[in-house]
């Protein structure tokens, strides 16, 4: 698994206290190591947002970013169980998703290698959006 996944921080689009006990963090931007046109990233992100809204699963926005490179990807907090989050990740061509359960931040591949790998407490990686 790409080591950058373990250093990601998150800018929250809503207060930390409003997040549920368990939720997924999913993006639809180019998978790590790939380059997509900005229009393709935008279209995929809008499609993901629409799907989550239709299913009543959208909680809010969360942007994952690297504190080292400053690369950032807009994403969504979604009320999904882990397996469904991985399936959506696969549909949106994602290598991995993040999952939060009981305050712990995990990362997992979306494909057949899916397995929750603990990172740290989510609150230690969450920054209010400015």
Describe the structure.
With 130 residues, the chain is of the alpha+beta class. The protein has one domain (3-128). The chain is built from two helices and eight strands; from the N terminus they run ββαββαββββ. The protein has helices spanning 38-54, 82-91; strands at residues 9-12, 22-27, 58-65, 72-78, 96-101, 104-109, 117-121, 126-128. Strands 7-6-5-2-4-3-1-8 form an eight-stranded mixed β-sheet. Strand 6 (104-109) and strand 7 (117-121) form a beta hairpin. The longest helix is centred in the middle third of the chain and has 17 residues, at 38-54. The mean pLDDT is 90.
Question: Key terms for this structure?
Answer:
130 residues, alpha+beta, eight-stranded mixed sheet, 2 helices, globular
Q: What's the arrangement of strands in the largest beta sheet? A: 7-6-5-2-4-3-1-8
Q: Into which percent range does the helicity of residues fall?
A: 10-25%
Q: Roughly what is the average pLDDT, rounded to an integer?
A: 90
Low-confidence stretches: none
Our Rg estimate from Cα atoms comes to 13 Å
Give the DSSP E fraction (strand runs of 2 or more residues): 25-35%
**How many angstroms does the end-to-end distance come to?**
30 Å
Please, how many domains? Answer: 1
Shape: globular
Structural class: alpha+beta
Major sheet: size, sense and barrel closure? 8 strands, mixed
> Can you count the beta strands?
8
Q: How many helices in DSSP terms? A: 2
Order of helices and strands: EEHEEHEEEE
């Amino acid at each position: 698994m790409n080591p950058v996944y373990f250093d990601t921080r998150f800018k929250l689009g809503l207060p930390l206290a409003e997040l549920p006990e368990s939720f997924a963090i999913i993006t639809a931007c180019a998978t790590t190591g790939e380059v997509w046109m900005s229009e393709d990233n935008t279209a995929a992100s809008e499609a993901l947002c629409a799907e989550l809204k239709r299913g009543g699963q959208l909680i809010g926005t969360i942007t994952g970013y690297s504190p080292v490179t400053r690369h950032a990807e807009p994403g969504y907090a979604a009320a999904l169980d882990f397996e469904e989050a991985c399936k959506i990740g696969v549909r949106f061509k994602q290598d991995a998703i993040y999952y939060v359960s009981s305050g712990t931040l995990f990362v997992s591949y979306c494909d057949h290698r899916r397995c929750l790998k603990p990172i740290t407490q989510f609150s230690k990686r969450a920054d209010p959006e400015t």
